[in-house]
Write a structure and sequence with these properties.
seven-stranded mixed sheet, globular, 11 helices
Amino acid sequence: MSAAPIKGLEDLQRFSVTLEDHVATVTMTAPPVNAQDRIFRDELPRIFDVLHDTREVRAVVLTGEGRAFSAGADLRERPNLAGEAGAYPGHNRRVRAAFDAVMECGKPVIAAVNGPAIGAGCVLALCCDIVLVAEEAFFAMTEVDVGLAGGVRHILRFFSQSDARLMIYTARRIPGPELLRMNVASACLPKDRLLAEAQAIAKQIAAKSPLAVQAAKRSFFLTEEMPLHEGYRFEQTQTAALSSAEDTKEAQRAFMEKRPAVFKGV
């Protein structure tokens, strides 16, 4: 099956989205460095809401076109925000909505970080379920360099307390191999192999029961801040809900019959 566009996402200005073998590839196409402006932040939730509801999509890869993954917020918009009543609350709401859309999408999202991921670009990568980085990529939180602050809570999900503070206070770059050593990334690869590896992992995910994978993502998202007992209890409700699904019955039949399962997402 060749890559094809997804219905409802043909008119994007800052992204391109294609679908192949149940894997959607979302590419940031905002040259030169995929900076995040208002159009970017309006389109991102729309994309991930559509992917959430598109049954043919079972996993998603997010990457950047060109030399950067995303250099973060488009600072050219900042002067206009400061002098307009109500502008900052609206702006902040859009920023949260863009990140939340990735985290709340029912399909697992793999970040293929092809180059620098700075500020909001770093946060966007960390909103994904799985992070792969190119050897020349780096993460950086440069808000203190431009008199701003932000991203701490997202950084703390992946970095230790000391490393998070070092990163935020100094705005230093954390290169790809170091991100792998710190267990922030699952793999660090040559750039020319990065996208193919991300798509290969996505195809592995897409071959599993879609309902079970979505339940697993829901459990990761909702139990992150729960105590152990309550979190595991929630997971058990997911297993109970899946037990009567046709895909679950098919998976169990296929296991007993020693054949690949054929899933329909029901």
